[in-house]
Specification:
- The protein is mainly α.
- Among the domains are: 11-66 and 102-230, Alpha Horseshoe (Serine Threonine Protein Phosphatase 5, Tetratricopeptide repeat), CATH 1.25.40.390; 233-322 and 457-528, Serine Threonine Protein Phosphatase 5, Tetratricopeptide repeat (Alpha Horseshoe), CATH 1.25.40.
- Helices cover 35% and strands 6% of the residues.
- The chain has a two-stranded antiparallel ribbon. It has a two-stranded antiparallel ribbon with strand order 2-7. Strands 3-8 form a two-stranded antiparallel sheet.
- Strand 9 (551-559) and strand 10 (565-575) form a beta hairpin.
- Helix 5 (145-170) packs antiparallel against helix 6 (193-210).
- The two termini are 35 Å apart.
Length: 604
């Protein structure tokens, strides 16, 4: 989120604030920060009086957005059925207490060290900072009305967004919308998920009215023209407004709030309205566009000689900040590239599961379990859709362009007994994946020296798919559409399929609401694979406990004389432990023992 090529002209203010004042603003600090730092020689008027200095204050909230792929220096964010490693994930064993790598741990550190960023402390820090900013708006006198609107809009967005980020893991929470001080009653009760989500929706809706579609086309954005791409806009606010409402409408959340494990059609309609307004704005302004298939991977990684080019192209709406350019190599590579190529930290490689691979369709667009698809279980990797070959490394694929290493290193030997098939440092499932670490990231080709990868928080493809889901569940069938937009749910889904070189959905999958929803589930699995959506999707749909999503499998096979697999056998590696209590993560005990109105999540 922080500018990639240069910061605001008042960069020194950010650092001065950070080191002398703002470290006091974590949620546990309830005293006036001006009373706490004797070396703080700047006044409130200097911090909040002008747009430039106030924007410097706001910038730190961008640094509170956790980079999933780099938190803890290791990509431990895939908690569902997508991947396996050389050792069991704690979440697979049902141990949701083990949350240190991504969720808990460290302090509210907003410096440029991505490994120390954690969701829980930084979200609360960001919420307090947003509230503080909103409380100081009356001091912003050296600013135009547009500049005042942009400051207020960013603060409102982040307050809503940080609450959303927290509640999708832990459920309903107190909604903090004021600057808490020591004399306040701090025994704030937990709200239901719906209540929390509706409060976040109010902030996101208000933010959307204040923020521009494009900072570069505003007067306030002219001083940083060309460097505004990651700033929060109306598009961000509308996207997360819709996502917040769709989550609240989903069966798991609706069951927690109302006792009914079905979609809430009214909230789905509201979500569809937000998504349709966003899509209409993109149609009219070109603010965001789907990346063409030829450059689809630009959404996830790019070659960059200076290591400073951000992936995302025209499609990614929200990314974490680039804080340490070299960290891509030490996170994505060490997480997904085998030891023999210089990754894996000499022991652990994250690989896709065979059960998850089944979501990728055939080139004709049909699911592999469709009797008309042409899928051959004895030749399972022939004739699959383009995203399969873009994402997944299969037996025989080239891994190294250089001719220096032997063939057993240059090409993937993923069959039983092959050089890349083992329980330590290689693949335990028969696959690798390359969505974020392309071929060339290895010790011989050394292309990782000029490569950047980041996990998108929100892309336009996700908006189209959520629009299709919201319209389907809000209005009842695939041919429905939002009142103020021309696309039907079916058309929105087909836009994403067509971009991936697939034909429109077969009519059999649009004939009923249930059949179409099944395709939305599958399409989200593939289009958004390994992007930190699956864990939330399966839970919100109340599907996380179904056996087909709990069993993580490998494919064992030998390589035949013609190079094709033979003697194929699917093997269950682990069955994820999922009970009703795993709908939500547990709070650390130190939080649930503070006061009765903040109870532990059920079952924990």
């Amino acid at each position: 989120m922080i500018l990639i090529f240069k910061r605001l002209p008042m960069k020194h203010i950010i650092y001065k604030i950070s080191y002398s004042l703002l470290l006091m603003l974590i949620i546990s600090s309830c005293e006036d920060y001006l009373d706490k730092s004797p070396e703080a020689n700047i006044t409130e008027k200097e911090v909040y009086g002008s747009f430039t200095s106030f924007q410097g204050f706001v910038e730190e909230m961008y640094n509170c957005v956790t980079d999933y792929n780099k938190a803890g220096a290791w990509n431990l964010y895939l908690f569902a059925d997508e991947t396996l490693n050389n050792y069991p994930y704690s979440f697979d064993l049902g141990n949701y207490w083990d949350q240190s790598a991504l969720l808990y741990g460290t302090t509210a550190n907003t410096d440029n060290e991505p490994r120390s960023k954690r969701i829980w402390p930084l979200c609360w820090y960001g919420i307090r900072k947003a509230n503080l900013g909103l409380s100081k708006l009356d001091l912003l006198t050296d600013a135009t009305q547009e500049e005042k609107d942009f400051i207020k809009g960013q603060c409102l967005f982040f307050r809503g967004w940080f609450h959303f980020e927290l509640m999708r893991y832990w459920g309903g929470l107190p909604y903090i919308d004021t600057v808490l001080v020591a004399t306040d009653d701090l025994s704030l009760p937990r709200l239901s998920y719906r209540e929390t989500a509706l409060k976040a929706a109010e902030d996101l809706k208000a933010a959307a009215k204040l923020l521009p579609v494009d900072w570069d086309k505003s007067v306030a954005g002219k001083p940083t023209l060309g460097n505004n791409h990651q700033r929060i806009t109306k598009i961000h606010a509308l996207g997360y407004l819709g996502k917040d409402l769709l989550y609240a409408a989903s069966p798991m959340m609706n069951e927690e709030s109302t006792g009914k494990a079905v979609f809430d059609s009214e909230l789905c309609q509201q979500a569809a309205d937000a998504f349709s307004e966003l899509l209409k704005l993109c149609d009219e302004t070109g603010a965001y566009k789907l990346q063409p298939w030829a450059t689809w991977t630009d959404n996830f990684w790019v070659w960059s000689a200076s290591n400073r080019t951000l992936p995302g192209g025209s499609e990614v709406i929200m990314y974490p900040a680039i804080l340490e350019y070299s960290r891509s190599r030490w996170s994505a590579v060490n997480g997904t590239v085998p030891v023999a190529l210089g990754g894996g930290m000499q022991k652990n490689v994250e690989v896709p599961t065979h059960n998850f691979i089944k979501n990728y369709a055939m080139a004709n667009g049909l699911p592999i379990d469709d009797p008309h698809s042409g899928y051959n279980p004895n030749d399972p990797w022939t004739g699959r859709e383009p995203r399969f070959y873009s994402d997944i490394i299969i037996d025989g694929d080239q891994l190294v362009y250089s001719t220096a290493p032997p063939a057993s290193v240059r090409f993937a030997e993923l069959y039983n007994g092959g050089s890349y098939r083992s329980t330590v440092g290689n693949s335990v499932t028969g696959y690798f994946y390359k969505r974020f670490s392309p071929i060339g990231c290895n010790s011989w080709d050394n292309k990782w020296a000029s490569w950047q990868c980041y996990i998108p928080y929100l892309r336009l493809a996700d908006i189209y798919l959520m629009y299709a889901e919201a319209v389907l569940q809000g209005y009842g069938n695939p041919s429905s559409k939002a009142p103020n937009y021309s696309l039907t749910a079916e058309q929105a889904l087909n836009i994403i399929r067509n971009r991936a070189q697939l034909p429109d959905l077969d009519a059999r999958y649009t004939s009923t609401k249930e059949a179409f929803m099944g395709e939305i589930i599958r399409e989200r699995a593939v289009e958004l694979a390994f992007e930190a959506h699956r864990f939330h999707d399966l839970r919100r749909w109340n599907l996380n406990g179904e056996m087909k999503y709990r069993e993580k499998t490998a494919i064992d096979f030998d390589r035949g004389p013609n190079g094709k697999p033979i003697n194929l056998q699917e093997r269950i590696v682990i069955t994820r432990v999922v009970e009703k209590k795993h709908n939500w993560l547990p709070f650390q005990v130190k939080f649930t023992t503070l006061y009765p109105e903040f109870p532990q999540n059920p079952g924990w």
